[in-house]
Write a structure and sequence with these properties.
five-stranded parallel beta sheet, 5 strands
Length: about 300
């Protein structure tokens, strides 16, 4: 779910991802040419470009005040006042200024060939999270959509060009918060199966599985964002009965545990997946600094 709306946060995350992209593409033909063919996105509401508009769920961002700062003041289905971080990244890479939603019927294959988001607000790495969040798109289905997308590219662009787009694209995952705030901490099933650290380990394993899945389909340059301090989101503070209005440190601790597990999983993948460069995009420290000193960020 969206945690911070500050424009400064978006710019910081944009810079972060751009730096990571430089690491991803170093030594490749795409880097030499200074051109990336596409940005391909998986995740939750932090990067949902409007897919939830086209599925039967109550979790939607297609009404005001969403979109009030988007071009024309239109609520596109993004869970934001304007563009998403991935939209800014796309523009910075010389691609269109917004990444289209895969399920948007108005988008052509030519548009999707330069960028696409399979993300769905309310979803998580754990498919149970999507089920509990009123039938949003689980990660397993996002991966199926990616397979479908690849076949559409082959038909429209030819196999050679389609494979080049898939291999040289930048892949971004932004997901995981909902697994805790909409699933683990509110529903009984996973808590009966796992302690918080065990569930963090389980989710990191699912993250690794998702990376392997897109690698097997041709992806090579992959950025996976860590979790922010979701114990400091307004809902967590409101529900913090022990210290009303304060960050819920139990939640922040499990976010840090997940981040550590995720980093370890990604390091392992880098050693196992030939030709792949998988990087961890740090967000926790940036968001924590804003929470600790909001005046410094406007």
């Amino acid at each position: 779910m969206k945690m911070f709306s500050s424009q400064r946060v978006s710019h910081l995350l944009l810079l972060l991802l751009a730096v990571h992209y430089a690491l991803l593409s170093s030594g490749t033909a795409a880097a030499a040419a200074g051109k990336v063919p596409a940005i391909i996105v998986f995740g939750d509401s932090t990067v949902d470009a409007g897919n939830n508009n086209y599925i039967p769920t109550i979790i939607k961002g297609d009404f005001p005040p969403y979109g009030c700062d988007f071009d024309g003041g239109v609520a596109t289905g993004r869970f934001s006042n304007g563009r998403l971080v991935t939209d800014f990244v796309s523009e910075a890479l010389g691609l269109p200024s917004s990444v289209p939603a895969y399920l948007d019927p108005s988008c052509t294959v030519d548009q999707l060939a330069m960028g696409v988001s399979f993300a769905s607000g309310g979803t998580g790495l754990d498919d149970l999270t999507a089920e509990s969040a009123q039938s949003v798109i689980p990660m397993s289905q996002q991966l199926e959509y990616f397979k479908e997308y690849k076949e559409k590219l082959k038909i429209a662009k030819g196999e050679s060009l389609a494979n080049e787009i898939i291999a040289e694209a930048l892949y971004v995952f932004s997901i995981g918060t909902n697994d805790f705030i909409l699933n683990y901490f509110v529903l009984p099933l996973r808590r009966a199966q796992y302690t918080p650290p065990e569930y963090a380990t389980y989710l990191a394993g699912l993250a690794g599985d998702a990376v392997r899945a897109i690698y097997d389909l041709g992806a090579r340059k992959i950025a996976f964002t860590g979790l922010g301090p979701f114990g400091c989101v307004p809902s967590a503070r409101t529900l913090n009965h022990d210290e009303p209005g304060e960050c819920k440190e139990e939640h922040n601790e499990v976010a840090m545990r997940f981040n550590a597990e995720l980093q370890a999983a990604l390091r392992k993948l880098n050693g196992e997946l030939a030709g792949a460069q998988v990087v961890y995009a740090e967000t926790y420290s940036i968001a924590s600094a804003i929470v600790a000193n909001p005046a410094a960020y406007g």
